[in-house]
Amino acid sequence: MAKPVLKIEDLHVAIDGREIIRGLDLTVQGGEVHAIMGPNGTGKSTLAQALMGHPRYEVTKGTVTLDGKDLLAMGVDERSRAGLFLAMQYPSEVSGVKTSDFLRAAINARRGEGNEIPIMQFIRKLDTAMKTLEMPQEMLSRYLNEGFSGGEKKRNEILQMKMLEPRIAILDEIDSGLDIDAIRIVAEGVGSMLTDEFGVLMITHYQRLLNYIRPHFVHVMMNGRIVKSGGPELAERLEAEGYDWLKEELGIELEHEETDTTVSQEA
Amino acid sequence: MTVTDYDVRQLNLFDALHVNREEPAWVREKREAAFRALDTLPWPVFEKMNITDWPWFQFRPFVSGRPVGSRQDLPEAVLTILNTFVQGAPTVVVENGDLIWEENTSDLNAQGVIVSDLKRALIDHEGLVKRYLFQAVSGDHDRLIALSKNDRLLALSDALWNGGLFVYVPKGVRLAEPIQLILAAHGEGTGLLPRLVVVTEGDSDLTFIEHRLSDDEMTTVHNGVSEVFVGSGARLRFVSVQTLGQKTYDHTRRYGVVEASGRLEWVFGEVGSAHSAQLTVSNLVGEGGSADVKMVSIGNGKQRNHFDLRNRHVAPHTESDVLAKGILLDSARQIYHVVTKIEKGARGSNGEQTARLMMLSHDARGDANPILLIDEHDVKADHAASVGYVDETQLYYLMTRGLSRKEAERMLIFGFLEPVVSQVPIESVQAYLYTAMERKFMP
């Protein structure tokens, strides 16, 4: 199978008529880990949700393709079946739906009718993934994310990613609310999937996640654009010195101080 | 709107009874009095739905069932349901006014258990039946709230009831297997007017399962009255599934009387397509008795459903709990009117109720009315009610994993109903409920 390619060109995204992303270009390929960093309110989560197709985020300009296909023309579920995955910052709690039943339905949704995953194969795969993530079996019989701690929800996101085997995964602040042990486990879970057929776009505030998942590229977002790109050393400098030097260097004033995550899950 | 041009009020009741019935005089007198009062009695009050223009009187009365020689001769729809029931357990099939099939019932006699066509029971066990028939409705226990003491739909059943079942479990008999009933309407314009009497004497234990159905293509009136008696320390699980067809007008009344430390667990699956006006009342008349209602419903098309659930605490230390969940599709209308009434003197009682409705269409309309009527201060009572649209954030989340909107909705619906359905005591009935609801959701 060919390397996956997610290609974003001149993307503009608005929420309720207000433009949040203002001309963003980025290409993520299989085998690559990209980290997007930046202060709160600069559009990082907006980028993630817009790529996934959240109905509240309106793409006003630009193109996005996945493996050459027009991603923006696809519905949310089609994007997922095409190989895109979004590990959410705030996953929904869904009462009454068992995690294992949901996972099986999601896998079968991409395999299609008549080609459902054999139950034993599903169980084995699930078992392996849960061991890697050090998740207890009983989580499977609990309702999806209901009453899960922040850390359990994040692990559950990565579990879903491992089960669905996307081509490109976006991890939206997968490290927030996790202690160091959990970050290590989650990062190993992601790292173990890295091949030429899998690319990652990580959104994070903190360098510490990058100690566990070494990015090939680091991008800084401000005011809805990528303002600087570099290697891992860029993240290290941001961790040590903050964003002020960069703002100064580029002559940028931040426009919104409120966080962009407050609307990220609202439909 | 009309079921048939025939109006049962034109019936010559005397002739009809003379031809069809050998009934005790007290039953006949009840019929005649009720028949005479049909036009003068008030309508029952279903507060948020006008049901007075539904064709309650347009049906053919006293239609017989068709006897069958073997299980395979049963109508296909009946057979399908029969196969979802617990196999090997005592089961009877009533079509229109007659018991047309029974299986595995012979062992019951040895334990003194009676499962009998009600007409037959009035002959074989008249004294016993007389102690219960009509008594939960209009006996001493009925000093009941809001609904008029008598009304024309109840009188319609009293006058023209046709067939039904008498179930009697003697003191101390605990049945491991359920007793099962299928009640089917057959024939265009037929009125399905069963009376059901279920009696569990002290310290007995019974699971009763009934399934009522009519064909989608057939215009029918269902007017069914059930009277249920739970003796001291007895436990009765009463599971009722209805798949009445879309041209059926349904009036269902269920009355429960629970003696000291008795427990009555109702489970209702309203998964058919009929227009319904239903009332279920549990009277907790003995100290320490309890009533529990678990109910799911799904409405589609232009379906109209009014579900009225009432728990009445008369004796001290009684408990009641209602958990009802409804799904509304298309332009369906559904009302849950849930009343917890704690009478003066029922100290130390606890009444709880929850009704939740989920709408999947902006043309649907749901109402959940929780009502607490408390006349005693030393009690606990609690209610929760909600009506809302399916959660778009949850839908989005499921869709990001590749589920289509329809599949995601289905998952949310089933998740919403799961806490209720999972408590249905028979697994095959759980599966049936899901299948029936899925059929309505994904035709």
TrEMBL record, chain A:
UniProt superkingdom: Bacteria
A Pfam family reported for this protein in Swiss-Prot or TrEMBL: ABC_tran
InterPro entries attached to this UniProt entry: AAA+_ATPase (IPR003593), ABC_transporter-like_ATP-bd (IPR003439), FeS-cluster_ATPase_SufC (IPR010230), P-loop_NTPase (IPR027417)
Molecular-function GO term, any one: ATP hydrolysis activity
Keywords annotated in UniProt: ATP-binding, Nucleotide-binding
SUPFAM superfamilies cross-referenced by the UniProt entry: P-loop containing nucleoside triphosphate hydrolases (SSF52540)
Span of domain ABC transporter: 6-248
CDD domains recorded: ABC_FeS_Assembly
PANTHER family, alphabetized: ABC TRANSPORTER I FAMILY MEMBER 6, CHLOROPLASTIC
Protein family: Belongs to the ABC transporter superfamily. Ycf16 family.
Annotated protein name in UniProt: Iron-sulfur cluster assembly ATPase protein SufC
Source organism phylogeny: Bacteria, Bacillati, Bacillota, Bacilli, Bacillales
From TrEMBL, chain B:
Domain (SUF system FeS cluster assembly SufBD core) ranges: 187-416
GO term, biological process aspect, one: iron-sulfur cluster assembly
Pfam families documented for this protein: SUFBD_core, SufBD_N
Coiled coil feature spans: none
Protein origin, superkingdom: Bacteria
SUPFAM superfamilies xref list: Stabilizer of iron transporter SufD
SUF system FeS cluster assembly SufBD N-terminal domain residues: 92-181
InterPro entries, sorted: Fe-S_cluster_assembly_SufBD, SUF_FeS_clus_asmbl_SufBD_core, SUF_FeS_clus_asmbl_SufBD_sf, SufBD_N
Family assignment from sequence similarity: Belongs to the iron-sulfur cluster assembly SufBD family.
Protein name as it appears in the record: Iron-sulfur cluster assembly protein SufD
